[in-house]
Amino acid sequence: MLKLLLWRPSTHQTHTLTLLHQNKSTNTTLLSLSRFLSQSLSEDPYDPPFSPTSQPHKPKKKKSNSEPDPKVPIKSDLPFDFRYSYSETNPSVEPIGFREPPKFSPFGPGRLDRKWTGTCAPAQQQEVDPERVAEERSRVLGDPLTEEEVEELVEKYRHSDCARQINLGMGGVTHNMLDDIHNHWKRAEAVRIKCLGVPTLDMDNVCFHLEDKSGGKVIYWHINILILYRGRNYDPKNRPVVPLMLWKPYAPIYPKLVKNVADGLTFEETKEMRNRGLNSPPLMKLTRNGVYVNVAERVREAFQTEEVVRLDCTHVGTSDCKKIGVKLKDLVPCVPILFKDEQWIPVLQIINVMIGKSVVNCEDQMNINSIVQEIVTNKASVAGHLSNFKGCNAVTMLYSRAEAQYRIGNAWKIR
């Protein structure tokens, strides 16, 4: 009992604990009240209780549309007309129509200081000085590379795992590709270009436009692989301004490629040629996005023994097949006489009637016409008249026309 009484708290201690408990409760109540008052005071009548105090919103400054952008329109000093594709279009051929209004520029409304005509944005001729352009290009290229320097660059960029590569496809040398080339030239001396598809038919044309439009130099060319060098004195900070095309413009409408009657033949003769071509085996079988470097040469060799050549374009596609016919017409030269799209099997036939055709003077043309008339009426020999035109390009023209008529069963003779 004595031990239990000793552990019993005294009256003074009990009073002290009671006061501490009351003070603690009072402080908690005051703290809660102050917190409630500080969080509930808000100017917004719809502000719910216990929400943070709303901050006054600062009005955002709106940009007025009346202020013009100092960077628009873009002014470029490049001395050539801007086109979607430089290597796959012929400026000398005028379109007969447009699939979209020419007033809509692919560079965007008001973004370029040149007017879009539907096919190109022509440069101002007053500002183009050919001599100054040639001097500036030679200054950027600098001294020619030595053989050791060329070998070093080729070994660095010719491999397929090269990071500085641009793929050149069915569009050829496009306008936006020029900007990609200059972007690579910021950190690399050269860029690797891999060409596929229709542009590979004429790689000389691709190399010419790459050098002419970019200002660089092709230092390596193997089949469809090119390496384009930027030049010794190239400065990325002073690179030319290349405004980008925001979308691909629709291709204009050009004259019909395959005529109902081929030039130099009648309707019956053209029909006979087409039937012979359909029944002949194909010279080559082309694939989509393939490498067509040797196609033109193969067609020329075939024309030494054949009149009609057939190319199997089953997997090429309609658009690419027509482009192949356009290019071969100028490269061989030849005349496409049939493009058949029956059951999605395009067949391209080419006739060599126009091989050797060239400009002749009026006297030779009159003599040729008289000889042709004599052959038709009197069934005379062609070989007896060829000696009068030795050294003249009209000989090949006359011989080709006579041979074509003879092979399709006409009355012409070749001895």
From TrEMBL:
Keywords: mRNA processing, mRNA splicing, Repeat, Ribonucleoprotein, RNA-binding, Transit peptide
CRM domain residues: 143-241, 263-361
Keyword Repeat: yes
Compositionally biased tracts (Basic and acidic residues): 64-76
Highest taxon in the source lineage: Eukaryota
GO biological process, alphabetically ordered: Group II intron splicing; mRNA processing
A single Gene Ontology CC term: ribonucleoprotein complex
Gene Ontology molecular function: RNA binding
Disordered as annotated region, ranges: 42-76
Pfam families for this protein: CRS1_YhbY (PF01985)
UniProt-listed Gene3D superfamilies: YhbY-like
Membrane-spanning segments: none
Protein's name according to its UniProt entry: CRM domain-containing protein
Organism listed in the record: Fagus sylvatica
